[in-house]
Specification:
This protein has 306 residues and is mainly alpha-helical. The chain has helices spanning 2-36, 58-65, 70-104, 111-123, 126-136, 142-150, 165-191, 195-203, 208-236, 240-245, 260-270, 274-305. The protein has one domain (73-305): MetI-like fold (Orthogonal Bundle), CATH 1.10.3720. It has twelve helices and no strands. The longest helix is centred in the first third of the chain and has 35 residues, at 2-36. InterPro entries: ABC_transporter_permease (IPR051393), MetI-like (IPR000515), MetI-like_sf (IPR035906).
Length: 306
């Protein structure tokens, strides 16, 4: 350690202010938020802020074990919906992005035009996506008109923003906006694979599936790991689409549409219960860390190899 400081001490001094600033910006608010979870920080005690009454683990106990707590019921439903939402969105996004990357990796005449058109959903802000799709999902909206009156795939117009169908209504807009980024990333990875490997495999009589399994996929695993981590964090903390789709936060999206971020926002800032909200946020942070550890165990060998 001493020889490293002697060799790079001046460089460490130059970057020290930036590192200190980043630590304060990131870990200062996080530690303060965790501490707020141990306080009775309601509207009545908000003026006291961090000097509000200390209640220990009471907020955590109410969220985890109190069946009479309305906060707990909504929190549990929101956790379940968010995990299913993350699973559905990332599965569909990665699959669709990989498929379209393979399509654009072929020598098509209109490949440049298709690449531009496919990227358009990605440049639309997420809050605009939520607003537009909220109108499209209405009973007399574009989607029901297309499915019922034009294609005649459904006998009647369903209510997409009420009941279990709400889950579909929040998943599809997220996939629509997210898959172009996955496509571009996979396309760059596909174009970096040496073509000599495919030529040798064809000479040896390998089928398209074998070429994908033994050549393409090993090269794509590290990219898939990063895309999965990026998508996992994005979906676990998704907010804008649901917030804009259901009355700009004023409406309750229902059991199958309420994500954790919208649930915490409504219960914390709508009910002015910052202690419970901070405790719920801390629990959710721990859940997210557990999922990231599972991700790391699954992909750390691929990341280390690259």
């Amino acid at each position: 350690m001493a020889h490293l400081w002697k060799k790079h001490g001046l460089a460490y001094l130059f970057v020290a202010p930036a590192i200190l600033g980043m630590l304060l910006v990131h870990y200062g608010p996080m530690l303060q938020g965790i501490y707020m979870g141990f306080l009775d920080l309601r509207l009545e005690t908000l003026r006291l802020y961090l000097s509000a009454p200390f209640v220990g683990f009471a907020n955590f106990q109410e969220i985890l074990f109190d069946p009479s707590s309305t906060f707990r019921t909504g929190f549990v439903h929101a956790v379940r919906t968010t995990l299913l939402y993350a699973l559905a969105v990332n599965t569909l996004t990665l699959s669709l992005g990989l498929l379209m990357a393979h399509v654009l990796n072929r020598p098509l005449v209109v490949r440049g035009l298709l690449r531009t058109l496919f990227l358009l959903p990605w440049v639309v802000p997420s809050y605009v996506v939520g607003l537009l799709w909220g109108f499209m999902w209405l009973k007399n909206g574009v989607i029901n008109t297309l499915l019922v009156e034009i294609l005649r795939l459904l006998p009647e117009k369903p209510h997409w923003l009420i009941g279990p169908l709400t889950f579909v209504a929040i998943v599809l807009p997220t996939v629509w906006r997210s898959w172009p980024f996955v496509m571009v990333t996979y396309l760059a990875a596909l174009q970096s694979i040496p073509q000599e490997l495919y030529e040798a495999a064809r000479v040896d009589g390998a089928t398209p599936w074998q070429r994908f399994r033994f050549i393409t996929w090993p090269y794509l695993r590290p990219v898939t790991a990063i895309l999965l981590l990026y998508g996992l964090l994005g979906t676990l903390y998704s907010f804008n689409i649901v917030y804009m789709m259901f009355g700009h936060g004023a409406g309750y999206p229902g059991e199958w549409g309420d994500l954790l971020m919208t649930n915490l926002f409504r219960n914390t800032f709508g009910m002015w219960n910052f202690g419970l909200g901070a405790a719920a946020s801390t629990l959710y942070m721990l859940l997210t860390l557990a999922l990231i550890l599972l991700w790391y165990r699954a992909f750390h060998e691929d990341l280390r190899a690259r």
